[in-house]
UniProtKB/TrEMBL annotation:
PANTHER family given in the database record: PROTEIN-GLUTAMATE METHYLESTERASE/PROTEIN-GLUTAMINE GLUTAMINASE, PROTEIN-GLUTAMATE METHYLESTERASE_PROTEIN-GLUTAMINE GLUTAMINASE
Keywords noted in UniProt: Chemotaxis, Hydrolase
PROSITE patterns associated with the record: CHEB
Domain CheB-type methylesterase: 2-192
Reaction it catalyzes: [protein]-L-glutamate 5-O-methyl ester + H2O = L-glutamyl-[protein] + methanol + H(+)
Pfam family, one: CheB_methylest
Top EC class for this record: hydrolase
Active site residues according to the UniProt entry: S14, H41, D134
GO annotation terms (biological process): chemotaxis
Protein name (database record): protein-glutamate methylesterase
Residues in coiled coil: none
Length: 347
């Protein structure tokens, strides 16, 4: 049987990620026989050239912004550009805007999923400091394909939410502080990986669907979506389309996808729903405020018909009641979110 090393390393991080990345890459040798791909959650207007330059100052490896349709080279670090997803196939780097996944672009899951689908057991997935759980689905895919999964010790992470969520839902290969991770990855790269491990059909199909959507701007066909999961009575918060639940029997997290390409874990779907609900309530409150103001103004300007003017004032008072109800709902939701965040940080 032909034996190969682990020559694809994919790294996902969010808040606090640049500092962690700089520390991770410092001990990596110049002849590392692997390519490293990095997704960090970034604002759309982030200066990627500055970030690449900063990371390059901490490593002897080549460090560049990922470019679409370029060949994968070893001993190199490729960073996802802002507002674009980063994927890979067998030989090439793929960069495209595409629909958001888990509310992010770039998102960690598309990179991890593509690495698992096209490089299988040769992949090492790494998750560092950050928020939410983007990367959990991708780490699970890498594990199912026989690759290594490495997570920064939450106690060592500046923002422990992301690594903690990974560890809460799956058993990873290694959990280490960032100071030990560079040496660990160097060792793992040289460990043999059999090329006979079969990639599960659902992982390959989802990776192919995502690639067609992101690269070719093609919607997934319904037949393929039905193969991946079952339709559920929810709509996509971003496009209003039908959602499919892709959760498998052995999966450790609920997840969803629409045929235009938006994808969510249960946590990110709920967060997106909450955001949309909050926006809708603020619009409703503003509309009621405007209506109340109009009714009050009409009543004040009516001089000849006291009965009609009083009727408008009564309607304006009714609007005030509705406005206060919505305001209390929004205040209660804010308090609930704060309490939930405190419990997460404590636990």
């Amino acid at each position: 049987m032909h034996i190969r090393g682990h020559n694809i390393i994919v790294i996902g991080t969010s808040a606090g990620g640049m500092e962690a990345l700089c520390r991770l890459v410092e001990p990596l040798p110049a002849d590392l026989p692997a390519a490293i791909f990095v997704v960090q959650h970034l604002a759309a207007d982030s200066n990627i050239d500055f970030l690449v330059k900063r990371l390059a100052s901490h490593t002897v490896l080549s460090c560049v912004k990922a470019q679409h349709n370029t060949h994968i080279e070893y001993s190199a670090i490729y960073m996802a550009p802002p507002d674009h997803h980063l994927l890979i196939d067998k030989k090439h780097i793929l960069v495209a805007r595409g629909p958001r996944e888990n509310q992010f672009r770039p998102s960690i899951d598309p990179l991890f999923r593509s690495a698992a689908a096209f490089h299988g057991a040769q992949t090492i997935g790494v998750t560092l400091t950050g928020f939410m759980n983007d990367g959990l689905v991708g780490m699970n895919a890498i594990q199912r394909c026989g690759g290594f999964t490495v997570v920064q010790d939450p106690a060592d992470a500046e923002y422990p939410d992301l690594p903690r969520n990974i560890l809460r839902h799956m058993q990873v290969t290694h959990t280490v502080p960032i100071a030990q991770m560079g040496e660990l990855l160097t060792q793992l790269v040289h460990q043999p990986s059999p090329d006979s491990v079969t990639v599960p059909p659902d992982i390959l199909l989802e990776a192919q669907i995502a690639q067609r959507i992101m690269i070719n701007s093609e919607n997934a066909n319904i037949e393929d979506m039905d193969k991946l999961g079952k339709r559920v009575p929810y709509t996509c918060p971003e496009c209003g389309g039908t959602l499919w639940e892709l959760t498998k029997e052995k999966d450790n997290v609920q997840r969803f996808r629409c045929h235009t390409g938006h994808a969510y874990t249960d946590q990110s779907l709920l967060a997106n729903m909450n955001t949309n609900l909050e926006e809708t309530l603020y619009v409703a409150m503003r509309t009621l405020e405007e209506r109340r103001s109009m009714l009050t103004g009409m009543a004040e300007k009516e001089l000849g018909n006291t009965k009609w003017a009083n009727m408008q004032r009564q309607r304006a008072d009714e609007m005030k009641v509705h406005i206060e109800r919505i305001r209390r709902i929004l205040e209660a939701a804010t308090i609930s979110d704060q309490e939930h965040q405190h419990r997460r940080e404590a636990g």
